[in-house]
Every structure is written in C-alpha cells, then in structure tokens.
Design goal:
Strand content: 15-25%
Distance between the termini: 41 Å
Number of domains: 1
Number of strands: 14
Strand order of the largest sheet: 1-2-3-4-8-5-11-12-13-14
CATH topology: Rossmann fold
Structural class: alpha/beta
Helix content: 25-40%
Radius of gyration: 21 Å
CATH class: Alpha Beta
CATH superfamily: Alpha/Beta hydrolase fold, catalytic domain
Length: about 450
C-alpha cells in the first residue's frame, strides 16, 4: 500500500494494493457482457487520449418498451443502480485519512478513512474540479472500471469521461465514499462507521458510533478536496442522497462550490420519506441476529438486510416499470401462485435475486446510520428549510424525475422557489421515463445539454 503524506497536515492518502472485487457468478452477467468494450491505459485517461465512447445503449433500451424481453434483461442492472453506459477507463481506488474528526454533534472520531477515485487531471490553479456525491446505496464509483475484467463501470459513466458531458479533458472529477457507507464490506469501499474498529477498544464501534449528518459527509469531503490542492469546485453534483450533499455544500461552503447540480433530491427529507426510511430499517431491527447492533463476532442479520434491500429496490422505482416489465407473470410457468404459498410471481423472485446480490457487501448498522442521517436532513441543519436554502448563493440546476415516488416533483419545485426567493439563479430539468427515482441514474443523459450549458455559465 502506497502512502502519500499531505502538505496540509490534514491527513494522508493511500492507494489500495488490490482494489479488485472478488469475482462471483452474477445474474447480471449476460447483460453486462453485452456492454463490454475495449480498455485503455490509466495514462491515456489522465491525459485525455481516450475517445472511444459507446453510444446510448441503456437509454435506448429503457425507452424501447416494445422490446419487452430486452427490457427485462436490463432490469437486473437497473435494480442494482447500474450505469447508463460503459466507460473504458481503468482506475485506482484511493483512501483519504484524517487523524481526528469532530462531528457536528461534537463527538471526536480518530482515524477517519474514506475511499475516493478521480478522473482527469487537476490544473495548476486547482480550480477545475467537479465533485460527484453518491446516493444512499451508492459508492464513489461514478465512472470507469477498476480492471479490464470489471464488467460493471461506474453509475454515471455515460456522462463522465473524455469528450462527455462532464469532460475529463477539461475537469478533474472526484468522487468519495461517505462516512457510514452502506457497502462497508465491499473491498472497493473505504469508510468509517459502526463496522470500523474503535481505536480505544480495538473492537468494532457497533451502536457506540456517534450519529453523523449529511453535513459531516460534506465536512470530510471538504478536507479531502483541500488535501489534494483543490481551491474551488466548478460544481458539486449528486443523485438522491448525493443531491442532499450537493445542497449542503452550497449552504456550508458557498465560497468553494461555484455551482451545484442536485439530481432527484430536495432541500429536506419530508415526513413521507422519513416514514419510508423507518419502514426500510424495520426488517434489520426485527431480525434477532441484529442483537441491538452487536453482531460483529457472530452471524450478521442477513435476512433483515435482504428484506431491507428489497424495499429500497422497489420503492425507488415506479409501478409503471413493474407492470410493464413483469406484469402478473409467474416465476415458474408450471407453478401457479394461486395453488401454493411457495409458488411466486416473477416480480417477487426478481426482487429476491437482486436483494441477495446487493446485500453481500451491506452492513446492517451502516444501513441504520445512513437512514438516520437522511431522516435528519434539512438544508443547513438550522431552524427552517427557508433559512437553509436562502443561504445558498451558488447557481443551482435541479434535475428531477417526473415519476419520482421518493422526492416528488412538487418538493423539488418548492426547493427551487426558496432558493430563488432572494435572487439566487436556479434552473430545473425534468427527466421522463418509467423508472421513478432511478431515472436520475439511468436517464441522466436526457439532461446532458442542460448540464453542459450550466457548466459553461
């Protein structure tokens, strides 16, 4: 593992020796193999020589509901928050460390670690950077691949890269794992949370880990970007929980974030979503193996995690998608669901398969802490939403999905009005599709022209 001391004294950066994910049989493999494209050297990416970008494969498939069999085949990738397109770059996952960090709640954490990756090259002035912030179930893997054998590129690979909307020939793009990242057991993720070793006890924190907020995520990101010599961010852009982070960046550090692009998110988590998050965490808390969060020396609450992941997978979609993709089809043509309890519909089996795959790297306590951080979010973490959004002075481009059942279009429009109230420029773009909330990932190319124009201003 290579260690690079930082001149700022804030922390240090490490490059992981082996960021490769263990190869496992996957139900997504046939679809992923269809997207395999050539790979290039890391140097060619850094210096902008790779322009072999594939065309809008996924977006064409998503729109073509007449080709139902093809739509079902891409369902598995969409369920797993897969990318819209392939990027043929090879990446190094790196780790940022802070010796200490004091949370918004006043608790001191020792040896904070978060993973990060980057695309493009930072200029001498340190002012050509764009920060990408990730969603609830996401990681820092926004684009590219970790190896030539990696079949799944980053989730926004369609818009990040040489010659793309977020052009890595022009911008230095960086993305980091948050604190309490959901995928704590993914070898390509570095995060600090309940599953981390408490230096004071040499055991996992468990539920002794302090509560953290979206502002804490942002504060750690700020320490990271400053350690790299970044003097300002041309934009902070993120989807879902990433949108909350983008909004918080503009509130907390307006001098640093020149623009923000919140995608499928709003200025606060409303009562409806607070309740959703509570329901999602229920299966974990009710699983006896959760044991009040003390399970690190025993079998983890796998059943609870899988049920929670089924919920997040389904509720982030739209009923039109489920009906057109699965309808009332039986999972097995020879087993009528009306004949026996064990006989199931295709939608049931699909959700079970995806949840089983997605839950492999999930830590139960991290799920609970992330949910709590989201429930507690209101821009600025102050007295009111209006106050928090009034503090935003950076131009804003809000991108939302017309059929989003988590962050409703009306809520996004309210966010826009409150930002504009004191004269801050705000624009919006509506994404259309039948994927609901997930259109913010899979259909982001619909906003390509708006994003390009916004970055030019």
């Amino acid at each position: 593992m290579k260690i690079f001391p930082l001149c700022t004294g804030i922390g240090k950066i490490k490059i992981l020796e082996n960021p490769m994910r263990e190869s496992r049989p996957s139900p997504f493999r046939p679809w992923r193999e269809a997207l395999t494209c050539s790979t290039v050297s890391r140097d060619s990416i850094r210096h902008g020589r790779n322009r072999n970008t594939p065309q809008g494969f996924l977006s064409r498939f998503v729109r073509d509901f007449r080709a139902k069999r093809r739509l079902i085949s891409i369902t598995f990738l969409i369920l797993a928050h897969g990318p819209a397109l392939a990027f043929d770059g090879i990446l190094e996952k790196q780790v940022f460390e802070m010796p200490t960090y004091t949370t918004v709640g006043g608790k001191v954490l020792n040896k904070v670690r978060v993973g990060w990756e980057s695309y493009g090259k930072l200029n001498k002035s340190g002012n050509n950077a764009i920060l990408i912030t990730h969603a609830f179930t996401g990681t820092s893997h926004a684009a590219g691949r970790y190896s030539t054998d990696d079949k799944r590129p980053g989730y926004w690979d369609s818009i990040i890269g040489s010659g793309k909307v977020i052009d890595t020939d022009k911008y230095f793009v960086i993305s980091s794992d948050t604190l309490v990242n959901l995928n704590a057991h993914d070898p390509n993720v570095a995060t600090t949370g309940p599953a981390s070793i408490n230096p004071a006890t040499q055991k996992p924190y468990g539920m002794d880990f302090p509560l953290v907020t979206i502002r804490d995520f942002v504060n750690v990101q700020k320490a990271l970007v400053e350690s790299l010599g970044i003097t300002s961010l041309q934009a902070v852009m993120g989807a879902s929980m990433g949108a909350l982070q983008a909004i918080e960046w503009a509130n907390a550090y307006p001098e640093m974030a020149k623009r923000i692009i919140p995608v499928i998110g709003a200025g606060e988590v409303n009562a409806f979503l607070i309740a959703h998050l509570d329901i999602w965490t229920g299966p974990i808390r009710l699983d006896p193996k959760w044991n009040g969060g003390d399970y690190y020396d025993a079998e983890p609450p796998v059943d609870g995690i899988r049920e929670a992941m089924k919920m997040t997978t389904l509720f982030a979609r739209h009923w039109e998608w489920t009906d057109e993709t699965f309808g009332r089809a039986w999972a097995d043509n020879d087993k009528d669901p009306a004949a026996a309890f064990e006989n199931k519909y295709k939608i049931q089996v699909a959700l079970e398969d995806i949840a089983r795959e997605r839950s492999k790297n999930v830590d139960a306590n991290h799920f609970l802490y992330l949910a709590k951080a989201c429930q507690n979010f209101v821009a600025g973490h102050g007295a009111s939403l209006a106050e928090g959004l009034a503090a935003i002075e950076s131009p804003v481009l809000l991108i939302y999905a017309a059929d989003d059942l988590l962050f409703f279009p009306e809520q996004v429009q309210q966010t826009k009005r409150l930002i504009e109230a004191d004269g801050t420029p705000a624009e919006h773009v509506e994404l259309t599709g039948k994927l609901g909330h997930v259109d913010g990932i899979a259909s982001i190319e619909q906003a390509a022209d708006a994003i390009s124009g916004f970055l030019r201003k």
